[in-house]
């Protein structure tokens, strides 16, 4: 993958459109991106990442603030990137989602995210415009995810130093993202899930067997054993079969005894029944003979009652007529009393008087309706008077409201205009305040920066002196060692061994050293001391340079203005901003107040017009209604008479008509009932004579109720039937020769019952034994089959459980590493090998990475640790013990090695462009040379390396530069070559 051109608009700190030609910068294969802190260097890398993946590295992606705050409202935020990957050239254009002002009206609207991919290699393929399609295509071409790309192409600030010092869990999460080892975790989980399923199957099989054992023991009436086996099942089956044979024999014996006892009981019962029947027949015949006198009397009474039945119906009819006649007389008396209570005399012809009153009632009907309408009109007039008073007050109130509204509306419009002008001026006032605030901070920082410069210059002088002294000591020590070299060589001679100078095996006069002989160890210590002094000197020079730069920048920025001059200006600017902000915040409220007042004026005017119209209508209606009421009142007073109103008089006349009608009807009914009584008395006398009775009283005395007559017939029939039944029973041949003796039926019943109970107990025991034998046979067969089915399942589970333990780092796994951990450990070892070559070169052969498979603290999984081998001491050290500069070297080596490993692992595009973000400020001059040599090797391999740093030394080493200028209104980019 090689970048060609980057164009960004209103992105990050860049309010305008910036264009970067990477082809121009990549001529030498190395370029520098520098600028002040916070100027927007990392934002350019964010633009590259956003163009490729629609996201930016790290926590900046969570903020979702990619649009420049200083960009004009009509400028669209967008990033365009031209690149070549896998032999194809393409252009990616993306816009993030952000809030912008509405083009019409007030408020904000959401600008949706967009993405476009266009092919620039002459391909006829259509451009892609869907965000998901663009993302899948980019990931397919690069062969890596956005997490891998951010880690191996955009080497971020401090990320690898943190990775180098991270604990096992944190390092494991990053490696899983980079190398995609989720599939091995899925394999581990698959084995665990299969083991769980097989364990569940085994437990289900064992549970089925346990249930069958319990059911088998219950069927046999035994307690289930703790460990059931085939021998226990066989003995249980044999025991149940023997119990069944015993129950069969017992049931046969008791059944025969029950049959014999039942036959004896039936014979005794039959004889006792014949004796009982003979005794009952003799007693019944005696009772019938004793009741013969009563029977004759019952027959006479029954015959008389049957003859008297002819007078019952006439007698009932007469009683009914007498009741009706009495009721009619009472009704006439009640009607006459009503008329007397009303003060009306009793008329001779009540019907004629009722007709006369009805005529008078008809004449009052129309006046009743007029009286009802009169009351409604009076009520309506009263309501109209109240409405007239209400509308008059409302009109006066609306007139007062409308008189004060124009002045209030004018004041609201003036306040709104002030708020709008304050809001428009607020950005300029804030910008001026911020600029003055920055100048005040700069003026306050000048004395401290000057003091730091003095301290740095003093430190530099001391460091130069110490370095010069150390270098002179080193030169002197080397000269002394050269002077004593003969003695040093002679000290290594041995008899029979060749001289390293002349090769002779004879050493007649080896040189001897003095007391102050200098050796190789002394020289190494002196070299280390000189290098340490040089490192301190380099750091002191950088500190002086930085302090001078800060003082010069602060003085140039102030332009000759002092803190005393700037502070009052800042206070005044802050006061202006506060006042403008307070007015601007009230804009929405002022707009609402003005709109509400305009609406209120319109509403009040409409209400005033409506009230005037309503008041005029009420005046007209009330005057006309008052005249009508006065004319109608005269007629109603005459019709009312002595009653409170016409309706009351009409109601009184209506009640009088009802009383007269009731009296006429009662007199007519009374006359009819009297005639009916006389007719039915004659009919009763004729019916008694026809029935053969001398008088009506004699006929009525012989009458019996229907129930009593039926009882007489029933008693006579029962008496005759009882005598005939007794005579037939005594004549039965089966009772011939019966003696009056007692038979012991209870003893026969008791013996038969005892035999029956014994037989039923034996039958119940046989059924239980048969059922137990059947259940035991069935359950024993099912239990043996369950054991047979469980054996292979349990064996398969044991094999799977052992394999699952090995895959998950347990059991026979000697390393105690899961499959995923083992793969990550292998990748970590590969990463250590790739990074060690870089680290060894950049550290002059002193440091190399060493992969450790030991477990971490508190038993955490091993295989993910990278320690450092220090060749100076020959010991393995933790990466956490490295100094700041050494940590940067190790982090850079680890990052470059990881880039190589991930690129090879992903099988994606060749990464021809690499960015390194910050960290160079911790290196001394010699180490910086080695790092630059390493980056030169990357460049020699065809890669383009972009360094993001504010270290001034790099500006002298790297000719191709991107310089970011920072200002109050945003940043800009300048390309510098040579």
UniProtKB/TrEMBL annotation:
Keywords: Coiled coil, Exonuclease, Hydrolase, Nuclease. Residues 5-181 form the Rad50/SbcC-type AAA domain. The keyword Nuclease applies. InterPro entries: P-loop_NTPase, Rad50/SbcC_AAA. It holds the Pfam family SbcC_Walker_B. The keyword Coiled coil applies. Residues 367-401 form a coiled coil. SUPFAM superfamilies: P-loop containing nucleoside triphosphate hydrolases. GO terms for molecular function: ATP hydrolysis activity; exonuclease activity. Gene3D superfamilies: P-loop containing nucleotide triphosphate hydrolases (3.40.50.300). Heterodimer of SbcC and SbcD. Belongs to the SMC family. SbcC subfamily. This is Nuclease SbcCD subunit C. It comes from Labedaea rhizosphaerae.
């Amino acid at each position: 993958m090689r970048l060609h051109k980057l164009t960004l608009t209103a992105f990050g700190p860049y309010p305008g459109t910036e264009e970067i030609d990477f082809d121009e910068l990549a001529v030498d294969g190395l370029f520098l991106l520098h600028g002040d802190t916070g100027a927007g260097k990392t934002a350019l890398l964010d633009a590259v990442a956003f163009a490729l993946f629609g996201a930016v590295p790290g926590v900046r992606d969570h903020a979702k603030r990619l649009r420049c705050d200083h960009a004009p409202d009509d400028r669209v935020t967008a990033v365009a990137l031209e690149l070549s990957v896998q032999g194809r050239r393409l252009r990616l254009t993306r816009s993030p989602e952000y809030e912008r002002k509405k083009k019409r009206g007030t408020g904000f609207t959401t600008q949706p995210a967009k993405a476009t991919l266009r092919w620039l290699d002459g391909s006829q393929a259509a451009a892609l415009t869907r965000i998901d399609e663009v993302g899948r295509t980019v990931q397919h071409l690069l062969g890596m995810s956005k997490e891998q790309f951010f880690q191996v192409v955009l080497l971020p600030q401090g990320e690898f130093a943190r990775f180098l010092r991270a604990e096992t869990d944190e390092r494991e999460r990053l490696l899983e993202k980079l190398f995609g080892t989720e599939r091995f975790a899925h394999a581990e989980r698959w084995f665990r899930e299969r083991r769980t399923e097989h364990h569940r199957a085994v437990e289900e099989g064992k549970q089925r067997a346990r249930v069958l054992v319990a059911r088998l023991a219950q069927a046999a009436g035994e307690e289930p054993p703790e460990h059931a086996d085939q021998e226990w099942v066989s003995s249980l089956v044999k025991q149940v079969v023997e119990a069944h044979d015993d129950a069969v024999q017992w049931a046969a014996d008791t059944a025969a005894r029950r049959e014999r006892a039942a036959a004896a009981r039936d014979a005794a019962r039959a004889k006792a029944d014949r004796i009982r029947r003979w005794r009952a027949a003799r007693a019944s015949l005696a009772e019938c003979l004793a009741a013969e006198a009563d029977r004759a009397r019952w027959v006479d009474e029954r015959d008389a009652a049957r003859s008297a039945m002819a007078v019952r119906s006439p007698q009932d009819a007469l009683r009914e007529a007498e009741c009706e006649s009495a009721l009619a007389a009472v009704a006439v008396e009640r009607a006459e009393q009503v008329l007397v209570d009303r003060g009306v005399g009793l008329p001779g012809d009540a019907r004629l008087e009722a007709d006369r009153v009805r005529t008078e009632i008809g004449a009052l009907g129309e006046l009743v309706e007029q009286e009802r309408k009169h009351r409604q009109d009076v009520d309506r007039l009263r309501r109209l008077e109240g409405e007239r008073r209400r509308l008059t007050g409302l009109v006066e109130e609306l007139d007062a409201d409308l008189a004060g509204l124009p002045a209030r509306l004018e004041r609201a419009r003036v306040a709104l205009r002030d708020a709008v002008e304050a809001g428009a001026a607020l950005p300029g006032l804030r910008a001026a305040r911020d600029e003055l605030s920055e100048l005040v901070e700069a003026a306050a920082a000048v004395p401290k920066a000057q003091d730091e410069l003095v301290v740095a210059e003093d430190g530099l002088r001391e460091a130069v002196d110490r370095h010069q002294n150390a270098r002179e000591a080193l030169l002197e020590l080397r000269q002394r060692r050269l002077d004593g070299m003969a003695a040093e060589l002679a000290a290594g001679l041995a008899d029979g061994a060749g001289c390293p100078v002349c090769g002779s095996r004879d050493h007649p006069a080896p040189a001897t050293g003095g007391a102050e002989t200098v050796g190789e160890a002394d020289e190494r210590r002196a070299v280390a001391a000189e290098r340490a002094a040089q490192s301190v000197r380099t750091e002191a020079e950088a500190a002086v340079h930085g302090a001078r730069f800060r003082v010069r920048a602060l003085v140039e920025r102030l332009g000759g203005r002092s803190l005393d001059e700037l502070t009052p200006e800042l206070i005044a600017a802050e006061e202006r901003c506060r006042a403008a902000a307070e007015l601007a915040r009230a804009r929405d409220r002022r707009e609402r107040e003005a709109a509400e007042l305009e609406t209120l004026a319109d509403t009040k005017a409409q209400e005033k017009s409506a009230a005037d119209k309503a008041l005029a209508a009420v005046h007209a209606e009330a005057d006309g209604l008052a005249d009508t009421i006065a004319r109608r009142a005269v007629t109603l007073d005459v019709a009312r008479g002595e009653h409170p109103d016409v309706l009351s008089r009409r109601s009184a006349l209506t009640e009088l008509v009802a009383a007269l009608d009731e009296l006429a009807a009662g007199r007519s009914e009374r006359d009819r009932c009297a005639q009916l009584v006389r007719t039915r008395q004659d009919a009763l006398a004729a019916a008694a004579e026809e029935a053969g009775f001398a008088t009506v009283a004699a006929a009525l005395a012989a009458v019996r109720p229907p129930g009593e007559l039926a009882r007489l017939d029933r008693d006579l029939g029962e008496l005759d039937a009882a005598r005939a039944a007794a005579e037939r029973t005594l004549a039965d041949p089966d009772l011939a020769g019966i003696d009056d003796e007692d038979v012991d039926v209870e003893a026969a019943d008791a013996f038969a019952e005892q035999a029956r109970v014994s037989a039923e107990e034996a039958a119940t025991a046989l059924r239980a034994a048969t059922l137990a034998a059947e259940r035991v046979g069935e359950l024993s067969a099912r239990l043996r089959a369950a054991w047979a089915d469980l054996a292979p399942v349990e064996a398969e589970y044991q094999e799977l459980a052992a394999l699952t333990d090995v895959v998950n780092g347990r059991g026979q796994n000697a390393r105690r590493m899961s499959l995923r951990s083992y793969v990550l450990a292998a990748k970590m070892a590969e990463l250590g090998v790739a990074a060690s070559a870089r680290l060894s070169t950049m550290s002059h052969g002193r440091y190399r990475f060493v992969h450790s498979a030991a477990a971490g603290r508190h038993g955490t999984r091993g295989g993910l640790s990278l320690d450092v081998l220090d060749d100076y001491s020959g010991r393995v050290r933790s990466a956490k013990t490295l100094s700041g500069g050494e940590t940067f070297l190790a982090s850079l080596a680890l990052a470059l090695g990881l880039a190589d490993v991930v690129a090879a692992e992903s099988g994606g595009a060749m990464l021809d462009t690499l960015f390194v973000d910050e960290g160079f400020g911790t290196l001394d001059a010699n180490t910086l040379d080695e790092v630059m040599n390493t980056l030169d090797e990357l460049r020699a391999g065809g890669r383009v390396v972009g360094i993001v740093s504010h270290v001034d030394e790099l500006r002298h080493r790297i000719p191709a530069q991107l310089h970011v200028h920072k200002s109050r209104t945003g940043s800009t980019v300048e390309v510098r070559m040579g």
